[in-house]
Write a structure and sequence with these properties.
Layout lengths: L1 H20 L4 E3 L8 E2 L5 E4 L4 E7 L10 E10 L2 E12 L4 E7 L12 E9 L2 E10 L2 E7 L8 E9 L4 E8 L5 E8 L9 E7 L16 E13 H18 L1
Antiparallel strand pairs: 1-15, 2-5, 3-4, 4-15, 5-14, 6-11, 6-15, 7-8, 7-14, 8-9, 9-10, 11-12, 12-13
């Protein structure tokens, strides 16, 4: 019994050390001003009353990158990680969308050498849609679906990336029921990222910026973001593993 106690104490101390070493790159519940940067402060701002972050995207072709962004440069680039956020869309015109994820500092699109992982919640020909995009080495990959998400409902998005396998994954859940409504995986092209992914946030540069004849240049999306967190994935897995060891020892 005494040995088990000593083992648990040492293990807990080790976990505390791991938690201290594996600092969470970013976390906010918007209970205080997150200090995000934006080029349109009238359309992207902290809503202190609601305790969330307000987004108003409008297609404004032909304004190109880097334009219409809001977010935060994290304290360190992410390697393997999980990014979580909650979103509630209150308006979504046809051809509008909200891009959210992690980007290199250029905020450029694929053809301009930008590298990123992001998810989109929006509306296209098939109705309300969700898509998942990655880009590296001048090559992009995308997956999408029409799962029938609803206005004025909260959804939880989870993006994860494994730097060893170069695989990115997205899962979207109904926040209230925790029911998964869609998931997808993508391999990062060209053998992985060559640039640091350190900018966390929203960018609308790929919607309404290409001059497609069908694009509604005045399409609007309005949304609220909440509970944004970036977690270093290897540390999370390790902590879960150590927790399992403790349970087995107690048994």
């Amino acid at each position: 019994m005494r040995n088990h106690f000593l083992f648990t104490v040492v293990l807990v101390i080790g976990i505390v050390g791991i938690c201290s070493a594996a600092t969470v790159p970013y976390s906010t519940d918007f209970s205080t001003d997150p200090g995000w940067v934006t080029d349109q402060p009238s359309n992207y701002y902290w809503n202190s009353t609601a305790g969330s972050y307000y987004i108003h995207n409008t297609n404004t072709y032909p304004d190109y990158y880097p334009n219409r962004y809001a977010g935060k440069t994290m304290s360190q680039p992410v390697d393997s990680f999980e990014l979580r956020w909650d979103v509630n869309v209150t308006r979504c015109d046809w051809s509008s969308g909200l891009y959210f994820g992690v980007w290199d500092s250029s905020l450029q699109e694929t053809s301009q050498g930008g590298e990123f992982i992001f998810a989109v919640i929006g509306r296209a020909d098939g109705g309300h849609c969700i898509s998942f995009d990655v880009a590296a080495n001048g090559i992009g990959a995308e997956a999408g679906t029409y799962p029938g998400w609803s206005l004025n409902e909260w959804y939880t998005f989870k993006i994860s990336y494994d730097s060893d396998t170069k695989i990115a994954a997205l899962e979207v859940l109904d926040r209230d029921t925790a029911q998964s409504i869609w998931s997808s995986t993508l391999a990062v092209p060209g053998g992985g990222f060559t640039k640091n992914l350190q900018f966390l946030g929203s960018n609308l540069g790929m919607v309404g910026s290409h001059g497609y004849s069908g694009i509604d240049r005045n399409a609007v999306l309005e949304a609220n973001l909440d509970n944004v967190q970036v977690i270093p994935e290897p540390a999370t897995i390790l902590l879960l593993t150590l927790g399992g060891i403790i349970l087995r020892k107690k048994r």
